[in-house]
Amino acid sequence: MKVNVLELREGENFLEFRETSASLGLGSLSSAFESEIPVSLRLHKHENEIVVWGRASLTATEECSRCLETFGRKFDVQFEAFCDKISALKAEEGLADAESETFVVSHDGRILNLGPCLLEAIVLSLPIKPLCREDCKGLCPICGKNLNEGTCNCQGNKIDARWSILERIKKEKEN
């Protein structure tokens, strides 16, 4: 997602994009995204400095980590970036302190690439363990039936053989 800096006027600018998931590099993620992602940007330009506020609306197809069913999830991603024109002197000095939390994007005075900012915002908004719903019951560990669709006939109290020694100790303490 590249912005032509020369076309931006001083002050507020508003831009709309339609990015593809492939151009952003989303193909390597476990979630599948819609092919087109609408992105809106508000940019404030002052000389060579540009502050960017961005928002993207996505629909992802994910697999539930409990029941393994696929489901669609819509979410909005927001990001902010401070952009400054890089010069040879600034490149040698370094743009940000290693301990600073400020994310600075540099541009050459002509093109500003905001694709990595959007990609980072999308990746950080994805859940570690996606769930189809909050109260997902998952799969039966014995027969594999989806417990969201109903109960199964398996013995829920069946004890794993590796824990049988604890069952024996429990019985000895009761006696």
Could you explain how this protein is built, in words?
The chain is 18% helix and 37% strand. It is α+β, with helices and mostly antiparallel strands and 175 residues long. The strands form 2 sheets. Strands 2, 3, 4, 5, 6 and 7 form a 6-stranded mixed beta sheet that branches. A hairpin with a 6-residue loop joins strand 5 (49-63) and strand 6. It is elongated, with a radius of gyration of 25 Å.
List keywords for this structure.
alpha+beta, elongated
SSE topology:
Blueprint: E1 2-4, E2 11-20, H1 21-24, E3 32-33, E4 36-46, E5 49-63, E6 70-85, H2 88-93, E7 104-107, E8 111-113, H3 115-125, H4 164-174
Parallel strand pairs: 6-7
Antiparallel strand pairs: 1-8, 2-4, 3-5, 4-5, 5-6
SSE order, as H and E?
Answer: EEHEEEEHEEHH
* Low-confidence runs of at least 5 consecutive residues: 87-102
Radius of gyration: 25 Å
Would you count the extended β strands for me? 8
Total count of helical runs of at least 4 residues = 4
Tally of distinct domains: 2
Average pLDDT figure: 80
Strand content: 35-45%
Largest sheet: 6 strands, mixed
Euclidean distance between termini CA atoms: 72 Å
Helix residue percentage: 10-25%
The global form is elongated
Structural class: alpha+beta
